[in-house]
Write a structure and sequence with these properties.
With about 525 residues, this protein is of the alpha+beta class. The chain contains 18 helices and 21 strands. The longest helix has 20 residues.
Length: about 525
């Protein structure tokens, strides 16, 4: 509580100090005194005692809400979690958990070297307690938070295991668990490599180079770079990947801010591009920030085609101020962070990546999509193609992702595909008897329909058969994931093999494969 009070009072006092290069007006100083006076008066005279921590925190949030959707204050715990996420690692057990029959269950081990695997946890184990507390009614995110912690510390979980009468306690030392930056990288068609980059962590360049080398060795002549759902990450990682495709010291991205140090052009350090083959970049409305920097640079330099949907439009540059940030320390709260927007990102052609946010509440800002290009400003790529500003990166070829049918949406919401596959392997076709992943044929279809009826998942059999093209691939995904997870392979391989089953129903990826020759035409001009 005292730390947060110190934060706000510290901001107020610094506003009047010589640390700020600009002179403070008399009106501004008076406004700061009014704030401090209001705070003191509330504490002394309000009708009931108030929670100063809550009051001050709300004051900080209210100040930042007036600025933009991305400026925010993080306490020490939140700041640490964010840093762990960006580093691409966290202290945990290395297990994948799900809610199965209302019980928290281990669905897979990330690999056989994780703390959970080495301790003896198995897929199918039901986690009934964490640190002695029941997991009844817990969500997977809440459970993950309880099981994560500083590397080297211990957590005790209690599990029920099939065939064992008594619950088993496991005391497990949390370890460093790598997060997949590149979960999928494989040849998707002859000569065409596919690489999915999920986040620009501190490992992004390293993992990108590793998997690209494997694809090149496999005969890759063009690359599909999938940035769909990639929320961003470290600028230097995005820059380091983009510059591999852009030479001649070309601008990758530009930042423009109010103070001189916030304005800068980031240029490729290469005289010639390292990667000279054609590129198709897949994006959607979940692609943001660093993803948009990479997509925008490749598009503006005519270095590759952008396919999919207009990206999110997150193009604000944040600077993090802490107790140790000279010359503007904000607080005595060691570990706290004030993340403040100091500039905007612009693509090489001059497009501002940030979408408008004035007058929008946080819900509408996050959910409003940029679609119509009619009234948006026009810009030119290196070879004169028209691209559009106004926020986000609009694709060269727009391809909407197919929406799920009503029946498939119901099945997804009930987790019917995964639960059926687990039932299938336990009661119909035991994994121990299999040497390959079962095919989704008419017999399996009938088993699935019977399972839906038994579990009272109310869908019409005819609707299931009508949408069978999607449903069979969804089932094939789960069958493959479960098969390889329990056959002792590492989870990365299991995920990749499973993901391949969804390619036939991925309309955006299908279009990217089709358009690879067009990307090659752009490269010929470049």
């Amino acid at each position: 509580m005292k730390l947060r009070i110190a934060l706000v009072l510290g901001v107020c006092l610094l506003a009047n100090s010589a640390l700020f290069s600009q002179p403070v007006s008399a009106d501004y100083a008076e406004q700061m005194r009014a704030f401090q006076g209001a705070l003191r008066t509330i504490k002394m005279y309000y009708v009931q005692d108030v929670d100063s921590e809550d009051l001050i925190y709300r004051a900080i949030d209210s100040m930042l809400e007036q600025l933009d959707p991305h400026s925010n204050f993080l306490d020490a715990a939140a700041a640490k979690r964010l840093a762990e996420e960006h580093r691409g690692s966290f202290g945990g057990l290395g297990i994948v958990i799900t809610i199965r029959n209302d019980v928290l269950t281990v669905s897979a081990l990330i690999n056989d070297r994780t703390p959970g695997a080495l301790a003896g946890l198995l897929p199918g184990d039901q986690i009934i307690k964490i640190e002695g507390e029941s997991t009844e009614g817990i969500t997977t995110s809440e459970a993950a938070q309880k099981m994560r912690g500083p590397i080297g510390t211990k957590v005790t979980i209690t599990v029920k295991r099939a065939g064992v009468d008594e619950p088993i306690d496991f005391t497990i030392t949390r370890g460093n668990i790598p997060v997949d930056t590149v979960p999928y990288a494989f040849m998707v068609a002859p000569g065409i490599g596919y690489l999915r980059l999920e986040r620009f962590t501190q490992k992004a360049i390293h993992e990108f180079n590793k998997y690209v080398k494997e694809l090149e060795d496999a005969g890759m002549e063009s690359l599909i770079l999938d940035l769909r759902g990639n929320p961003g990450g470290y600028l230097e990682q995005a820059f380091g990947i983009a510059e591999q495709f852009i030479g001649d010291q070309g601008v990758i991205v530009e930042t423009r801010g109010r103070i001189p140090r916030s304005t800068r052009k980031y240029r490729s350090r290469r005289a010639q591009p390292l990667r000279k083959y054609p590129v198709v970049v897949l994006v959607n409305e979940g692609s943001a920030s660093a993803s948009e920097i990479v997509a925008g640079a490749l598009q503006d330099w005519d270095r590759g085609l952008v396919v999919g949907e207009t990206t999110f439009g997150k193009g604000l540059v944040q600077r993090v101020f802490t107790a140790r940030t000279p010359p503007y320390p904000i607080t005595a709260c060691d570990g706290c962070q004030l993340k403040l927007t100091t500039a905007r990102y612009y693509t090489p052609s001059g497009r501002c990546i940030q979408k408008p946010y004035e007058g929008l509440d946080i819900f509408n800002y996050r959910h409003e999509r940029i679609t119509d290009t009619k009234d948006r400003p026009k810009y030119q790529t290196m070879h004169g193609r028209t691209v559009y500003g106004g926020g986000g990166i609009s694709p060269d070829v727009e391809v909407k992702m197919d929406k799920l049918s009503k029946v498939s949406s119901i099945l997804r919401s009930r987790n019917a595909f995964r639960l059926f596959v687990q039932y299938y392997y336990e009661h119909i076709q035991p994994l121990a008897n299999l040497t390959e992943v079962p095919s989704v044929d008419s017999t399996l279809q009938q088993h699935f329909l019977t399972y839906l009826e038994t579990e009272a998942i109310r869908v019409e059999p005819e609707d299931v058969k009508e949408d069978w093209d999607y449903i069979q691939h969804a089932l094939s995904y789960e069958l493959t994931l479960e098969y390889w997870s329990k056959k002792g392979t590492d989870y990365h391989h299991a995920r990749q093999e499973a993901y391949k089953q969804l390619i036939p129903v991925d309309t955006q990826l299908a279009k990217a494969i089709e358009l690879a020759p067009n990307a090659e035409d752009l490269l010929a001009q470049w």
